[in-house]
């Protein structure tokens, strides 16, 4: 039987790491259609800082003994949604149909949107992000998926839902690195973006939430931030486990099929 999803003591862990983030509305400094700069700016050594207290990222995402696995996933999913939404909001003024006609990630990756019926459509980045945030907000507010009331249980498909949400949030983060990292630097938010990426990446590596083809676009940043595990063990900074590591409650491989692929 599952208890309320949002456990204050758990949710405060991710939130604490992001405390004192100076979120504010950016002023428009670029003209419509002006290039957004070098998409690999985020790899420059001087810009690889991240707001991180003395805590191992693996320790942050490891499931505490006696805690329900679904509740743990839910708490991290909620935290990631909140912070990705806030970070994108600071640069959204620069993300328009004119400046970002496609939803792109690093290395020329382009993301198409798939609706709940599997229909594929090409949309501008701000429309794509709006779809992501609307879908995620609707999902986490659905009591049958993210239960908050006593005696309500998580559905059998919960992990599959989390996989889709995390994948879509990763797309938004990837777009921010590809098209708006310079804006984040100008606003002094790049370290917080790095931390959000580190949180998402470590969570994924611990519970195998994303396919390798999704994460390849930012593999170089994983290495630069020392999130990639070293051969035969954990990576620097606590890093994360092997991407193929099984979820704590799995005893055999499980294939999950999302509602739709985006």
From TrEMBL:
It comes from Diatraea saccharalis (sugarcane borer). Keywords: Metal-binding, Signal, Zinc. This is MOB kinase activator-like 2. Gene3D superfamilies: MOB kinase activator. Residues 229-262 are annotated as: Disordered. Residues 1-19 form the signal peptide. Zn(2+) binds at residues 95, 100, 175, 180. Transmembrane segments: none annotated.
């Amino acid at each position: 039987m599952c208890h309320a999803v949002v456990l204050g003591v758990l949710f405060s862990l991710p939130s604490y790491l992001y405390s004192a983030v100076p979120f504010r509305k950016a002023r428009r400094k670029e003209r419509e259609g002006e290039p957004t700069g070098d998409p690999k700016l985020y790899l420059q050594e001087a810009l690889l800082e991240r707001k991180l207290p003395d805590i191992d990222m693996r320790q942050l995402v490891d499931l505490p003994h006696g805690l329900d696995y679904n509740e743990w996933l839910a708490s991290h999913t909620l935290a990631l949604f909140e912070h990705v939404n806030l970070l994108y909001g600071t640069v959204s003024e620069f993300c328009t149909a004119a400046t970002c006609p496609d939803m792109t990630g690093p290395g020329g990756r382009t993301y198409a949107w798939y609706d709940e019926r599997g229909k594929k459509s090409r949309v501008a980045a701000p429309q794509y992000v709006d779809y992501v945030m609307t879908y995620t907000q609707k999902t986490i507010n659905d009591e049958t998926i993210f239960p908050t009331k006593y005696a309500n249980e998580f559905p059998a498909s919960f992990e599959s839902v989390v996989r889709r949400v995390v994948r879509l949030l990763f797309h938004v983060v990837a777009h921010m690195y590809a098209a708006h990292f310079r804006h984040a630097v100008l606003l002094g938010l790049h370290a917080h973006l790095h931390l959000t990426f580190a949180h998402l990446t470590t969570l994924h590596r611990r519970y195998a939430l994303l396919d390798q083809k999704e994460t390849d676009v930012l593999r170089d940043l994983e290495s630069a931030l020392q999130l990639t595990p070293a051969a035969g063990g954990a990576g620097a900074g606590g890093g994360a486990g092997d991407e193929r590591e099984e979820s704590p409650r799995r005893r055999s491989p499980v294939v999950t099929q999302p509602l739709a692929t985006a």
